[in-house]
Amino acid sequence: MMTAGSKRAIASALAVAGASLTCVAIAAQGGASGPLLAEQAFKNVQAPALKTISVDDFMLTMGIMTSSLGFDCADCHAGAGTDKVDWAADTPRKRTARRMVNMVQAINRDNFGGRQLVTCWTCHRNRDRPVATLTNFEILYGMPILESDDLIPASRPGMPTPDSIVDKYLQALGGVQRLSTMTSWAATGTSMGFGGFGGAGRVEIYVKAPDQRSTIIRFPDAPDRDASVRSFDGRRGWIKTPLSVLGEYQLSGSEFDGARLDAQLSFPGQMKQVLTNLRTLDPVTINGEGCDVVQGDSQRRTFATLFFEKSTGLLVRTIRFGPSPIGRIPTQIDYGDYRDVNGIRMPFRFTLSWLDGRDEVQLNQIQLNVPIAAVKFGRPTALESAR
Predict the structure, then answer these.
(1) Is the pTM of this model over 0.70?
(2) Are 305 and 319 in contact (CB under 8 A)?
(3) Which of 136, 231, 313, 360 could form a disulfide with 172 if both were Cys (CB 3.0 to 4.6 A apart)?
(4) What is the band of 12 on the pLDDT scale with cuts at 50, 70, 90?
(5) Residue 303 and residue 351: Cα distance in Å, rounded?
(6) Domain edges within the chain
(7) Are the C-beta atoms of residues 19 and 238 closer than 8 Å to each other?
(8) Domain 162-385 class?
């Protein structure tokens, strides 16, 4: 029997959970007519808080539920993982989930002025049933596990200034003047999936200042498997995922804000402009290395926490947070294998982790200031047809 953790790992490794944790799609595009709302794209969405959110926010909200309970699609949706799935069918767990969504919203409304201080994670912590009684006294009398808050409103006393930490990072990359010469870059590499599952993809990344970016992953060893695409052209964004219910959809919620921020931070020299109200958090340790931590606000209600290695000044992790009706949605990017590219140090390895999936990418080439056609940042179907 698999543990809840192993079930989540395998579901993520298959790289389909991120787009198939939903009800059943009745419109798979969000294309020419623009972004879709959840109630337009899916059948049997009954929770009032979920009906009128964007499709991308709905998908991410499903990720909050599954990650909080240690579930995957099949735990709530009849026949998920088979060719006889009925996404719209009511099941006991789906009915319970609706009640929980309404309960959490009521708790926050009636006790905390509508602030999201209670979420699925608050009680469940990767279990389907919350722990009600202490049964392990090692937890009580052992070393406490201290988890930091996600949002910190002001700098911690006695910490270095956020500007000094960011300046050290920019200098470590090559200096502000050299970074200002970056206008575009293109990269190729390999997608390894999560633990080797769902990988063996051929990666292309295209980035153009100030805020355009696309990542395309093709699978030459699986000719029947469609490409995976995340694209943002500065005004519109899309996600296209193979083996999924929706297939391709346009962004307008948290994924839109995240895609824009990812594109902007692809040019590090813009960091102080795209992140405002910078504050310094308590230092942490990542992979045995001490890190300075800076947090800043992006547009709307998105914010990001950045982790800089003390010894080198280099950025080793970014976690961005976006809103949803039932809690904040984290997306984490880890960076490594920095190499010199025309006088600028750039990461050749990164791991993208979200609530229902993870992908590790190893780049083999980065080219700076190359011409990139506008179609590379457009709608995935148009991008693929232009090959």
Answers:
(1) yes
(2) yes
(3) 313
(4) very low
(5) 19
(6) 4-124, 162-385
(7) no
(8) mainly beta
